[in-house]
Amino acid sequence: MTDAPGLGVRRTVSTTLPTAHGTFAMHGYDGAGGLGHVALVMGDVADDGLDGVAPLVRVHSECLTGDAFGSRRCDCGEQLDAALATVAAEGRGMVVYVRGHEGRGIGLLAKLRAYALQDAGLDTVDANLELGYPADAREYDEVADILHDLGATRIRLLSSNPEKAERLDALGIDVVARQTLPVADRPENSFYLSTKRRRMRHDSLGPAPDVWSELVAGRVPVHAVAGPDSVVLDRYAPLVAAGTELTVAQLGQSLDGFIAARTGDAEFVTGEQDREHLHRLRALVDAVVVGAATVVADDPRLTTRAVAGPSPARVVLDPRARVPAGARVLTADDAPTLWCVAPGAGVPAEMPGHVEVVRLPVTEAGFDPAAVLELLRSRGLGRVLVEGGGRLVSAFLTAGLLDRLFLTTAPLLIGDGVPGIRFDGSDRLADALSAPVRRFVLGEDVCTEFDLAAMRTPTVSTDQS
């Protein structure tokens, strides 16, 4: 995306508009050669909300014939009504009504001339071209200005037109998802709509894909239904889009920075929604890495029981082979397990078929995180989740190997216990580790996602023992 453009339009008036779908805040903007634009807003659409969910936005090109007269040559009026209903149902979002876009930017009278050519057999694209106009003459600079003014620079776009999303993205608006509105074709507009799908890349009608299934399969859907599916797409699509090599970490801790009590009791620091989030992360990676202390304390299964999707390979870093033979990662065959131990560590002579003992060089600080990733990638396990405990996640963070870190904080004050993230810090706050973040609410917990790949920092040192 480019940097946000300087605002070329001004908000000149704000009022309210009661509608059949609810009451919207209505903001008027200059622009469109003096015609002006309108934004109908419901709820807080700015980007700084803790829920981390981008607002729904419909960028609606004015259409006198469809919006005012109920024309069935197009679906514009029905799209506008459906957009207002969809925003109202969610309680948050906006419709930007864009003047100067009549007839895809050619103007009202030219649109009517194009209609006459369509009556003679031309489709909507060829009619515009026959009149000497482009197929689509709309510009979106002033729309981007309005969205920037309202603080909505991350949006879920209500549109079946991928070009609209691309144009907004180029103007500094991050379109994190695109949703097709539920408006069916009519006999009077079916040829018009099929032309847009065939010649202008508009989405075809049909059932929307199951978003989570698509993400688990490594595909990012171009649009999603409103509600939970759209939230899932917003939250996890960047991980899928990152490609075949990705290293993420997840850790849940109290507000004062502990992942367990002084006795080692960690059941449970964070709540059920954070555990579902963790299982989704597992389903999106090839391997999940934990330290021996985590296995000894919690006896985890490290599978995707809470969500649909394959369980990743389990990688247990255990230099001294401390993990008991009865641990579930060694006895349950619901996922393959790599038990990584030092060259001289003693292990049972016979192991279950799903367990492979891997011997790695070890130092006083433990296994080298880079060597662990190299081992996994050599086995085709390029997408890795470092799950715990605190020392292990801190070691990968210190080594500069994490692309993303999900740190969930629970409303608890433990006071003393097993620490979470710890590394040798800086003397000045200005030198503290920093990265772009997103935050989202998981029940009573708050998850902060650090995009470390976007802002690599110099490697710092810490004791990994």
What's the arrangement of secondary structure elements?
Elements: E1 11-19, E2 22-29, E3 37-42, E4 56-61, H1 64-68, H2 76-90, E5 93-98, H3 102-105, H4 108-119, H5 124-130, H6 141-149, E6 154-158, H7 162-170, E7 174-179, H8 190-199, H9 211-216, H10 228-241, E8 246-254, E9 258-261, H11 272-283, E10 287-291, H12 292-298, E11 313-317, H13 328-331, E12 337-341, E13 355-359, H14 369-378, E14 383-388, H15 390-398, E15 404-410, E16 417-419, E17 437-442, E18 445-451
Parallel strand pairs: 4-5, 4-6, 6-7, 8-14, 8-15, 10-11, 10-14, 11-12, 12-13
Antiparallel strand pairs: 1-2, 2-3, 3-5, 9-16, 15-18, 17-18
Q: What can you tell me about this protein's structure?
A:
It is a single chain. With 465 residues, the chain is α/β, with parallel strands linked by helices. It folds into 2 domains: 160 residues, Rossmann fold (3-Layer(aba) Sandwich); 213 residues, Dihydrofolate Reductase, subunit A (3-Layer(aba) Sandwich), CATH 3.40.430.10. 29% of the residues lie in helices and 23% in strands.
CATH superfamily of the largest domain: Dihydrofolate Reductase, subunit A
Low-confidence stretches: 1-5, 457-465
Q: Please work out how many helical segments DSSP would assign.
A: 15
Radius of gyration: 27 Å
Mean pLDDT: 88
What proportion of the residues is helical, as a percent range? 25-40%
- Strand tally: 18
Strand order of the largest sheet: 13-12-11-10-14-8-15-18-17
Q: Please tell me the total number of domains.
A: 2
Instruction: From the 3D structure, determine the CATH topology of the largest domain.
Output: Dihydrofolate Reductase, subunit A
Describe the biggest sheet? 9 strands, mixed
Could you tell me how far the N terminus lies from the C terminus, measured between alpha carbons in angstroms? 42 Å
- Work out the strand percent: 15-25%
CATH domain class of the largest domain: Alpha Beta
Which class best fits the helix and strand makeup? alpha/beta
CATH second-level architecture of the largest domain: 3-Layer(aba) Sandwich
